[in-house]
């Protein structure tokens, strides 16, 4: 059985570090989504204590990076790959305009 996802904050000379631990999977992240939103500006997000990660965990971590401006360190190869996939999917220029059928397209023209 896995470990619940958790985090702790450490203040250092380079700024605040958010250290993540446990399994960042949907069954283990619980209420961390709201807790992470309140942490503000961070210098580093340390993933060296993270066990398993799924898309939900990667999305929460990605959102924290975007909101806080933190640099990510300590990610395993699999975690880094998953975070990169989530980052790519979240790029605004990746969204395509909807393709409408003939009737709606005719109204638009």
Average pLDDT number: 86
> Spans of 5+ residues with little confidence (pLDDT < 50)?
none
> How would you sum up the major sheet?
4 strands, mixed
Radius of gyration: 18 Å
Strand segment count: 4
Number of helices: 5
Question: What is the helical fraction, as a range of percent?
Answer: 40-55%
Order of helices and strands: EEHHEHEHH
Name the shape in a single word.
elongated
* Estimated share of beta-strand residues: 25-35%
In which order are the strands of the major sheet placed?
1-2-3-4
Question: How far is the N terminus from the C terminus?
Answer: 58 Å
Structural classification: alpha/beta
Description of the molecule:
- With 109 residues, this protein is α/β, with parallel strands linked by helices.
- The protein is 40% helix and 28% strand.
- The protein is built from five helices and four strands, in the order E-E-H-H-E-H-E-H-H.
- A four-stranded mixed β-sheet has the order 1-2-3-4.
- Strand 1 (6-12) and strand 2 form a beta hairpin.
- Helix 3 packs across helix 4.
- The N and C termini lie far apart (58 Å).
- The relative contact order is 0.16.
């Amino acid at each position: 059985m896995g470990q619940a996802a958790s985090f702790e904050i450490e203040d250092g000379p380079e700024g605040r570090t958010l250290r993540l631990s446990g399994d960042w999977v949907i069954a283990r992240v619980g209420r961390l989504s709201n807790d992470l939103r309140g942490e503000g500006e961070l210098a580093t997000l340390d993933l060296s204590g993270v066990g398993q990660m799924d898309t939900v965990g990667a999305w929460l971590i990605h959102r924290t990076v975007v909101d806080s401006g933190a640099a990510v360190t300590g990610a395993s190869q699999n975690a880094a790959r998953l975070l990169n996939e989530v980052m790519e999917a979240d790029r605004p220029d990746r969204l395509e305009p909807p393709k409408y059928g003939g009737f709606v397209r005719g109204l638009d023209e």
